[in-house]
């Protein structure tokens, strides 16, 4: 026997459950509000501005690898925002590379790409940041995605796609 929901009940349910597009639009608005609110605490540091790296959406990013990740997210229709400020207690504000949304589950993830893992100073800073994420209950695979690369081991686009399929589709 199949339970059928009456039209009036179905309409009431629809009032409380947003469709995907409405949810995505609201999610983007929320990210804009977070950016605006945190702007007085967070500032931008321009590094190596000789060459501007643009994504397919026309966003300016800091590295070729961030462009690869952004373009894969865009190509696979994953809602994302670049560098949405996040306050980590005991560390301060950080700007994770991406904040992404799994539309089906409505779950958010932060995505950090550690791109200079052959630079000792960078590694020390990255480890401090990583420990602060953990202290603030951001756990890899639960609500945090991390990718890494070095000069001798560049970012593999196939792995980026696997990560997106695993967590965000």
3D architecture notes:
By secondary structure, this protein is α+β, with helices and mostly antiparallel strands. It has one domain. The protein contains 5 helices and 8 strands; from the N terminus they run H-H-E-E-H-E-E-E-E-E-H-E-H. The chain has helices spanning 7-16, 20-38, 64-75, 120-135, 157-167, and strands at residues 53-54, 60-61, 80-82, 86-88, 92-94, 98-102, 107-114, 144-148. It has a 4-stranded mixed β-sheet, sandwiched between helices. The protein has a two-stranded antiparallel ribbon with strand order 1-2. A hairpin with a 5-residue loop joins strand 1 (53-54) and strand 2 (60-61). Helix 3 crosses helix 5 (157-167). The longest helix has 19 residues, at 20-38. It is globular, with a radius of gyration of 19 Å. The two termini are 32 Å apart.
